[in-house]
Amino acid sequence: MSWEPVIGLEIHVHLKTRTKMFCRCRVAYFEPPNTQTCPVCLAQPGALPVPNRQAIEWTVLLGLALGCEVPERAIFHRKNYFYPDNPKGYQISQYDEPLCVNGRFVVPGAEGDTVVGIERAHLEEDAAKTIHVGGAEGRIQGADRSLIDFNRAGTPLVEIVTAPDLRSAEDAKRFLQLLRQTVIELGISDAEMEKGSLRFDVNVSVRPSGEEFRTRTELKNMNSFAFAARGIERELERQIGVYESGGTVEQETLHFDPSRAEAPPLRSKEEAQDYRYFPEPDLVPLEPDREVVERFRGELPESPTARVRRLEGELGFGLAEGLVTSGRDELYSRIPGERVAVANVVMNELAATGVDPASVNADELAKVIERRGDIPRAAFTDALAASGSPGFSAARYLTEASIADVSELDPVIDRILDENESQAEAYRGGKEGLLGFFVGLVMKETGGKANPKIVSELLREKLRA
Q: Is residue 173 part of a domain?
């Protein structure tokens, strides 16, 4: 039987507002536990929420970038559940009237575009952070106790829910990378998975090609694109195995452990009715200002998807996608020179140095890239590492350019061949491995500055003669 993957995503993005969603506590990471709190985010009796206007506007901006409609009215709801990270016993979220609905996001691929529906992008408050102690790598599986840090409780969080339109782990990974870059370029979040400001859940199911959807499972709180792809592949294989052995897939939430490629179940998957949503009585409905909405629409930058397609013609899909999803295409566009060579340096060698792309002197770096074949490898690497420093100049590194002038190399090579006549005759007799011996002598004679490629060509020419 031919099985078709069905994949949907729920992405959680922390907004980098100065204060939390419903109080004036500072949004901060890596502070001592439970130091960024107040009666509102600790749910003390009588404390009332006040919405963060900046968070509302940034959610609208993100929704427009995702091609969403922004309704005339949106309301907050109480999402009721009991868990240690939720001090109120409910989370202030949105349900059937969110800020942004009915969007679409185009994911470019080597074989064409995939259009992913965006069902909603709604605004809510994040829960506290649960720290599991005693398990492997802080995971809940195997932990013997859990600690709660309420610094994160109340942080503005946008949840983006896609339609089940993705059909491969690779497409899901590419969607997440492009979405992250979109969020960063809008300036509304740093979207750093290492500190939890970008997290995502993956809903996975399989079906016989073209048939109705089957039961899905949810891979919870993924924080790596690579782990997400691996988790999806593993869950697809598991579900296909269950069906082909005559079993049924249970709807449940799974916790993917990348170190063991396992996904043990956490709990049965909740449905909307389990949360007993009802309108938040302490907050009035939202009515986004239509002038602000239209102003935001007119200020949207070119999307990462459009830039991939624009660069694809000159670089091919792989390089174009890599530049855009890494955010390095802006630097690439500033560096003159042969386009594929520039792209490869920016994507690979420059990226390895950790230099901030925004600080690079593009014109000076272009001179180094143009002469890279003439510069010793160490000098080229040093130039890349220094390219973001104030006062960076290519001239310092180009003085170490290798000797490629034939008129300079000819007398050196002639002398070496005369001094090693027996080896030259052996080469002519079929021992062509001796070419490296001669190249080494020339490099030693020139202090390592000769261009090895030119030296090899000249030696072959003279030895044949």
A: yes
The set of residues, in sequence order, having a beta carbon less than 8 Å from that of 443 and lying 6+ positions away, is: 450, 452, 455
- Whole-number Cα distances in Å, 246 to 1, 181, 213, 215, 258: 13, 42, 18, 15, 27
**What is the spatial distance between Cα 124 and Cα 22, in angstroms, rounded to a whole number?**
10
Q: Specify the pTM.
A: 0.82
- Residues 367 and 415 both lie in one domain: no
Q: Name beta bridge partners: 254.
A: 219, 265
Paired with 105 in beta bridges are 116
Strand partners, 13: 158, 198
With a CB cutoff of 8 Å and minimum separation 6, the contacts of 226 are 173
What pLDDT digit, counting tens, does each position of 353-393 carry?
999 999 999 999 999 999 887 777 888 899 999 999 999 99
Range of the domain at 336: 328-398
Q: Are residues 361 and 213 in the same domain?
A: no
pLDDT, average across residues 213-220: 92
Nearest CA among 3, 14, 1 for reference residue 204: 3
Beta bridge partners of 12: 159, 199
What CATH number has the domain bearing residue 436? 1.10.10.410
